[in-house]
Write a structure and sequence with these properties.
Number of helices: 8
Largest sheet: 9 strands, mixed
Order of helices and strands: EHEEHEEEHEEEHEEHEEHHEHEEEE
Distance between the termini: 33 Å
Amino acid sequence: MSWSIGKAWRRVDGVLLLDKPTGMTSNSALQAARRLFSAAKAGHTGTLDPLASGLLPLCFGEATKFAVDLLAADKTYEAELQFGARTATGDVDGLVVERCPVNFRLADLEAALPRFRGTVRQIPPMYSALKRDGKPLYELARQGLEVDREAREVTIHELTLLDFSADRCRLRVTCSKGTYIRSLAEDLGKALASLAHLTALRRLAAGPLAVSDAVTLEHLAALADEDRRRWLLAPDRLLQSLPPVYLDEDDALRFVHGNPVRSGGLPGKCRVYGGHRLLGLGERDEQGSLRPRRIVASA
């Protein structure tokens, strides 16, 4: 399907919860949505592999200033694993490089899962965007090279078995930033004296945002422009985990000009409003000063 537009780029501010299809890169999905909205500025809050489907929050205009705040949020996935085979990429898109019989039972799988809950150490896969000497690891992997990767601590808050049949299982995973579900699949296979790779992945949630509230590109393309814009959420939807601070007119003016203002409350980041308008992201210090960190440009 073609995601063409018939108008010039324009300022669009907001957050779009996109249900990304499989087989499409996150950047391709972003550019397709950008063209549908004719948005002059756009970005996403962290990539999903082409294999994966599900929630991909996209930011337009001033909302792009807050995209980084969702990168650190916990994510929830539904993952399908196949046992008995290891692939070069850790998922179904890679060539099978090793096979083995599947000899474990359901009880063995259930007994193995607890060791992957909580804080665990995980070696990032070679087919990842992490960089070594300025080069993404996946570029080195495509050249047939493999380099040592340091294990990193990640947190798996939830790991629930949804289904198990012969050599496949489905898992629900809620995890911290930096967790690789492909690595989890391979590590689980090793724990069962087997091999495993990821065959399907769907992101269900990112922080407080859920795929149940998302829309597909096909649906957006079929809508009139006015109806399409109704899918855009306010930029502060990305900041709902932060406490709000409301400033009077004088302090609001100081804040948007980059000056600190006095504000009570606990230290830390907060979303700042002047009246009902989002002014930006602020951070309180121990002395009660509220300092601007990111400021929303007025329309």
